[in-house]
Amino acid sequence: MRNSTLLLSVFSVILLSCQPDDPAQTIVDKAIDYHGGAAYDKVNLEFDFRDKHYIVQKNGGDFRYERIQMDSTGAEIRDILTNAEAYRTINGQKVSVPDTTMDKYKYSVNSVAYFLLLPAPLRDAAVQKEYIGEVTIKGKAYDKIKVFFTQEGGGKDHDDVFVYYFDKEDGSMDFVSYLYHVNETGMRFREAYNPQRVGGILVQDYINFAPTDSTLAVTDENLLSLDSLYQSGKLTEFSRIENKNFKVR
């Protein structure tokens, strides 16, 4: 009996060792390698987005993001987000900001950095991945991955849901759609363009699309259908996400 149990245990270990890796994680790892790999471990970039200047710094697990703008009087305003704190300075001096207002600044600054550094943030511990399947967009095959977040470590926007489309050949992240609940609720579908290597990582601009049907319910099911709506012409351009004047610091 003990020998039978031992043989069964050995057989189970062999079976487990032969199981394929999590397909979603394997696809994401390939995409991160394509977009920058080890270069994401140490990032020090500055760039302009709309009417503001940004600095994005990462060193291992440490990060510092800054948003810089001038007010109507010519004063320099910096919103700074790090692992340890978030605060605002005016002309180099820290100022007191209500928590609810600072939360909005944090969300805005982090959002710009998050999209810039994609797909690297998909390896964060709070990220949950689900392989949806293969789809064809504009004649190319893509792996479709749904991403959601645990409440612990997922941030204020942990209820957001993303869908990423990775080129099956090289792993490039050419499309992304998302459902958001912070400040307002909606769905967007983004098409990447203008890829360029800066400091070893691939940065991209995006055309931001929204459903033409404003009554379309904001649900996971409808989020997963946005690629079909895109191909059938049922999305309209909402805005463009263009980062300019990149410099490696």
TrEMBL record:
Domain of life: Bacteria
One Pfam family recorded for the sequence: DUF6503
Matching InterPro entries: DUF6503
Name listed for the protein in its UniProt record: Deoxyribose-phosphate aldolase
Protein species of origin: Salmonirosea aquatica
